[in-house]
Design brief:
Rossmann fold; 9 helices; two-stranded antiparallel ribbon; alpha/beta; 8-stranded mixed beta sheet; 12 strands; 29% helix
């Protein structure tokens, strides 16, 4: 049957699916390779299980007591991407590793600089000049030596790098770049890859701090996207998509990029909120928040809601939702990366 289907419909993959009262099992036709079956929405539910007890050993006993062996198996079976290994991303990978994530794809184009050391978890002065993905990989393997880690020193806005996210089960977006967030947001809905976007901001005016804020937002079918919540700046996306030469020659771009204030304690507030939201989305833990705001002045974290924009180009059925490769992604087409 596999040969027949390949001849009749060569594009795409062909799966066999068996349904039963206890769930379902799927495999690629013509092979014994099992394919997990997930329900994707506000929750990510594993509908298939091979009955393995992997992930429920003594190391995760306290977590199994919280959300059960099935929840721990779900976490351990996910292939997770982390885009951005700076302030929030470096803290997040520590927490995800200890939760039991065992398969990572890490994406970041930068190396450690002296100015990063105040907020980059697991990095010290001797790491200056090392890639951020290498520091994160070292931290992951120190905690869990058998974990699989694929590191890409690259920018996710480039087409060949963005393609790496399409086959993942879950993504965390930990950058301060509007262009990278626009690309990953599209992937979340276009390819049904649930994503949690997070960010922090410290605003300083006339030498005084006026705002300390953080946000954590899950992107998945049924939930509003970053376009719906007005979290993206079109001018910044345009600027960040350009090469340095293009920026220099564009008369409409005025001024240079200025780094924003950053403090590790603020980053370390946002990252745990994202990790907890992830737990609630993939296990039986009854957390309902999928969009949270942090106010550092008031010391308050509050859940919030946003409406999906009707006919949104990203998250509606008339837009990119579930269109897969039939729609193009808003990426740079050059393919040279580190």
């Amino acid at each position: 049957m596999a040969g027949y289907l390949r001849r009749r419909a060569p594009a795409g993959e062909h799966l066999a699916l068996v349904l039963g009262r206890a769930g379902c099992r799927s495999r690629r036709i013509g092979t014994s390779q099992e394919v997990p079956v997930w329900e994707v929405g506000e929750r990510l539910v594993l509908l298939s299980s091979n009955g393995s007890t992997e992930g429920s050993e003594v190391q995760y006993d306290r977590q199994v007591r919280a959300f059960g062996a099935d929840g721990q198996r779900a976490i351990s079976s996910l292939k997770v991407g982390v885009v951005g290994l700076g302030g929030t991303g470096s803290v997040l990978v520590q927490q995800l590793t200890r939760l039991g994530v065992r398969d990572f794809v890490l994406i970041d184009p930068d190396v450690v600089e002296t100015t990063n050391l105040n907020r980059l978890a697991a990095a010290g002065p001797a790491d200056v000049g090392m890639t951020k993905i290498a520091v994160a990989e070292r931290e992951i393997l120190l905690c869990s030596p058998t974990t699989r880690v694929r590191g890409l020193r690259a920018d996710v806005v480039d087409a060949n790098v963005a393609a790496e996210l399409v086959g993942l089960d879950f993504v965390f977006l930990c950058t301060d770049s509007h262009a990278s967030r626009a690309v990953v947001c599209h992937i979340a809905y276009q390819y049904l890859v649930p994503t949690i976007d997070m960010g922090t901001s410290i605003t300083v005016r006339d030498g005084s701090v006026t705002h300390i804020t953080g946000r954590v937002q899950m992107l998945a079918p049924e939930l509003p996207c970053l376009t719906c919540t007005a979290a993206l700046d079109a001018n910044e996306i345009r600027r960040e998509m350009m090469s340095p030469e293009q920026r220099a020659s564009d008369p409409y771009l005025v001024g240079a990029y200025q780094p924003q204030p950053a403090v590790m304690s603020i980053n370390s507030t946002a990252a745990p909120l994202a990790a907890t939201m992830f737990m609630a989305a993939v296990t039986s833990m009854p957390g309902q928040a999928r969009f949270q705001l942090y106010d550092g002045f008031r010391g308050r974290v509050r859940p919030t809601q946003a409406r999906r924009v009707e006919d949104c180009i990203v998250c509606s059925r008339r837009g990119a939702l579930a269109k897969g490769p039939s729609w193009g992604l808003p990426v740079r087409t050059r393919t040279k990366n580190g």
